[in-house]
Amino acid sequence: MRAPLRTVAIVGFVAFLAGCGGEATPSGAVGTPGASATAAVTGADKLGHGPARPTPTATRAPAAGCNGQLPADNVWRADVSKLPVHPRSTAMVASIGAGAAMHPDFGSGDYEGAPIGIPVTTVPAGQKKINVSFEYASESDRGPYPIPANAKIEGGPQADGDRHVIAFDKSACKVYELFSAFPQGSGWRAGSGAVFDLRSNKLRPSGWTSADASGLSIFAGLVRYDEVAAGRINHAIRITVPKTRSGFTWPATHSASSATDANLPQLGQRLRLKTSVNTASMPKQARIVAEAMKRYGVIVADHGSAWFISGAPDDHWDNDALRALKSLTGNNFEVVDTSGLIVSKTSGATR
Predict the structure, then answer these.
(1) C-beta separation of 331 from 276 below 8 A
(2) pTM above 0.90, yes or no
């Protein structure tokens, strides 16, 4: 079976924003403002890991109003501030870039005509569902997907990067996510796609990708302005790194590397901002993001530039305030051991 490559095209944007646990054996990026190089995933299959597996069962939270968050006991919302440091933390941080600065890969305004960040299209109840044709159909949820023809595309309609499309259906409490999405006739075509029920802790089948290399939800890890405006982010944040090793760390379900260096992080690896880092003097928007990284950490979700954290664009972002996050470097982070949180490797629920 062929081994497709996922390439993350990184577009320079210095002028604006200048932006663990149980390890499994291998089973098988945006048009990113702020990066100065192109990162490519090499080696192992992105998809193609044999026949489709049945979807595992997982606990489901009681029905409730949808606030755009996964269940309170979900791993994305787990407090990791007291978890033990991973024994290879120092080496993993060094492999990402101990001296490299963090980049907030979101903000206000446009860059080359496109909003800065990964946009979310909120759709109304009853939004017409359309068919999506997938290049990697064996690991994509069939749909149909309630994605309108004018859905926002990461990087804009002419982008040549990851072209993520995310549709949030609040009435159904679900998000629909596409990778490499292009309008096609009355529908869409995409590289891969996934549907996430925000009231469920269910993970994707082992070995499956999503719209992200890790098999995780992109939406779950985005920094959103409404959270910061409310004064608190209560979940981990999506982050990219230049290179990972084969296999994946819970809650990830997919590997996109053939590298075997044990000092590289895996997709799904959890890091946190060290408690010793003083964030009190940061502007409010940056401080709230930094405080979330201390308590909930960041999750390695895809390949791209080092220490790029993902967020949704919003005109209310203060780019000058967000730029304060660039004062953080890899040395300010540590990898944590999340194995003690695991209830089941088929579920994102935590102890």
Answers:
(1) no
(2) no
